[in-house]
Amino acid sequence: MAGNGPGRNAVAVSDLATAILDPVLRRRAGISIGLVQSWEEIVGPRLARTSRPEKIQWPRRMQDDDAFEPAVLVIACEGIAALHLQHETGEIIARVNAFLGFSAIGRIRIVQKPVRPPQKPERPALRSLSEQEKARVSGAVDKIEDADLRASLERLGASVLAARKPRN
Model confidence at 78, in pLDDT bands (50, 70, 90)? Predict the structure, then answer.
């Protein structure tokens, strides 16, 4: 993508995405994308693997001249990470406030929920077929006239047999 400057230099897609997502995150969750991206630097790699900032809940102000009250940072975390997070609450508040540049956060609320997407189970390695098994699969599909269909069914049959334990 071309930039707006006189030389029209290239602009990284991540910069464009940040420019689009940051206002949405601010409006929906009261949080900046910079905080989300810098989470590992703020809390450290150990906590960053099992937690993420969800939103910043700002207290409602009834009038414009009401005194400033710090917000609550809602952090989602998994299982045992909640205990670690709770022990480091003061340090996290200080680091987030330093990142934001003012005393924006006064408390942290911890919400336990899955942070990482569930991992797909690994497929087991398929065994190689014996010559007898290969012949059996070929014989089962040899009367099919369409070559593409026959090849697909042969691959399917071979993978089904390879997933099973061999007969002794």
Answer: confident
Two structure tokens written together for 150: 């026959």
Backbone angles phi, psi at 108, to 5 degrees: -125, 135
pTM, entire model: 0.53
Residue among 53, 44, 60 nearest 115 (CA): 53
N-to-C CA span, the chain: 62
3-state secondary structure of 26: helix
| Helices then strands, each counted (H, E), the chain | 8, 3
Could you tell me the two tokens for 113? 């929920």
Could you count the other beta carbons within 10 Å of the beta carbon of residue 79? Answer: 10
* 58-77 residue pLDDT tens: 877 666 777 778 889 999 99
Reported as a single tens digit per residue, the pLDDT across 9-31 is: 676 665 555 555 555 544 544 56
- Is the pLDDT assigned to residue 108 strictly greater than 90? yes
DSSP 10: B
Q: Which residues contact 83 (CB under 8 A, 6 or more apart)?
A: none
- 93, 73 in Cβ contact below 8 A? yes
